[in-house]
Amino acid sequence: MISQWQLRAAFARRLSDMYGREVPAYTTLVDVSREVNEDVLRARGADAERLGSIGRVTAERHGAIRVGTPAELQQVARIFGALGMHPVGFYDLREAAASAVPVVSTAFRPVDGEELARNPFRVFTSLLTPADPRFFDADLCARLENFLAGRRLFPPELLALADRAEAAGGLPEADAERFLQLAVRVFELSPEPVDQAWYETLERVSAVAADIGGVRSTHINHLTPRVLDIDELYRRMTERGIEMIDTIQGPPRWKGPDVLLRQTSFRALAEPRALRTPDGEVISGALRVRFGEVEARGIALTRQGRARYDALLARVDEEAARRPGTDRADLARALWAEELPDTERELAAQGLAHFTYHVVSDRPGDGSGLPTRLDELVEQGWVRAEPVVYEDFLPRSAAGIFQSNLSEEGTRNNDQEGAAYDSDWLSGVLGREVLDPFDLYEEQQNGSLAQVARALGLDRPPR
Question: What keywords tag this UniProt record (predicted)?
């Protein structure tokens, strides 16, 4: 049997190879990421692996795909379920973006700590929202839904193999090979001519809508390596003549620990595509939909820490509006220095970030006078704290990446009331629970504290 994590790792590798053939600049991005990671490891030693081994970081990828209907999303969930990946988090990019991005999203990923360590592949998956009248009037909504209903993205054989793999926890070797071939193939860019008039109709609403609903297939939209110094990567990519987007999304670079997620990308490339004109002629054209994203991951914040982060973002917006021309990154750094502790220990002490806790093997003394408070156990050398990696996404950053790669803002009628979508709705669509990332981090931390209590003979987990 080829286990689910082995299927996941093989799928991520093959997807990366395929995407590199289709988008050569992605291979450059991977090469530069590897160079930067090696340089950081040499310069910082073991500290560079504080948030994951260099093996994990180098192999790590997240993909992004877009689908058009709840049925398509449910089928995607079955495919990723075969790989041991679960839907985590609900992201409403309609509200997070200033421009027209009519999608809601979730991320499929492993949730168990050991599974994440083996291969943390995740796929940010967006669903088009044709029923939202801010973007699509009744006529266009009907036309779009009719178009989407007439396509089939995932062949029945692939779905049947996926269901078997999820039920059995893997597949025999021959079936695993067939599953991987079919799964990678459905995310290749189709050579089928694109209906030019229909695509342009949707593009006037949103380039994202056109990319999803203007074609009869889906494709990998971007594939993201992880880098240990995203600012250095940005500099090196620019030096190589690759046009990057204007900013690095997420928290600023500052003197304290990396938290949450920082992302950037090279700009979407004009890729040759066959277009079918209204008179039926097939011509050579170009569409600009795929780009190369890269990310740097930090420590997972608690609910309290995330609330502080969101409040800081709002303050940066206010200050930037009040002081036009001021560099946003400088504003953010100044506010971060005022409002966030600049050490891991203080982040933990204030309950702002998640850590796992582990009993130290050469701990002091014989257990007499053992403290029961967590901060004292850490301070006196009984227990060590290891930061929990943030495995998820930031809606505003995702929307920022999306819109920074759009050539036009699109259209949105804010006089209309938006259609309601939420995590419960998405769980119903998928037929499986959309997990709350905060709950997962809390479970991870609490599980480690329970183990500490057992190892030290404490009545209850330390707090």
Answer: Dioxygenase, Iron, Oxidoreductase
- Is residue 137 domain-shared with residue 217, that is, in the same domain? yes
Cα–Cα distance between 43 and 279 in angstroms, integer? 61
In this structure, the answer to whether residues 216 and 352 fall within a common structural domain is: no
Task: State the pLDDT at residue 320.
Answer: 87
Domain count, the chain: 2
Fill in the amino acid letter for 339.
E
pLDDT at 105: 95
Is 220 in the same domain as 309?
Answer: no
CATH code (residue 127) = 3.10.180.80
Nearest one of 89, 92, 82, 128 to 107, comparing CA atoms: 89
Task: Provide block-wise average pLDDT over 10 residues at a time, the chain (463 residues).
Answer: 96 94 89 95 92 89 94 98 98 82 95 91 96 94 96 97 98 98 96 95 92 94 93 93 88 93 87 92 89 92 96 91 86 91 94 96 72 90 94 87 69 86 96 97 96 92 92
pTM over 0.90: yes
SS (H, E, C) the chain: CEEHHHHHHHHHHHHHHHHHHHCHHHHHHHHHHHHHHHHHHHHHHHHHHCCCCHHHHHHCEEEEEEECCHHHHHHHHHHHHHCCCEEEEEEEHHHHCCCCCCEEEEEEECCCHHHHHHCCCEEEEEEECCCCCCCCCHHHHHHHHHHHHCCCCCCHHHHHHHHHHHHHCEECHHHHHHHHHHHHHCCCCCCCCEEHHHHHHHHHHCHHHHHHHCCCCCCCCEEEEECCCHHHHHHHHHHCCCCECCCCECCCCCCCCCECEEEEEEEEEEEEEEEECCCCCEEEEEEEEEEEEEEEECECECHHHHHHHHHHHHHHHHHHHHCCCCCHHHHHHHHHHHHCCCCHHHHHHCCCECEEEEECCCCCCCCCCCCCCHHHHHHCCCEEEEECECCCCCHHHHHHHHHHCCCCCCCCCCCCCCCCCCHHHHHHHHCCCCECHHHHHHHHHHHHHHHHHHHHCCCCCCC
Looking at the fold, whether 63 and 189 belong to one and the same domain comes out as yes
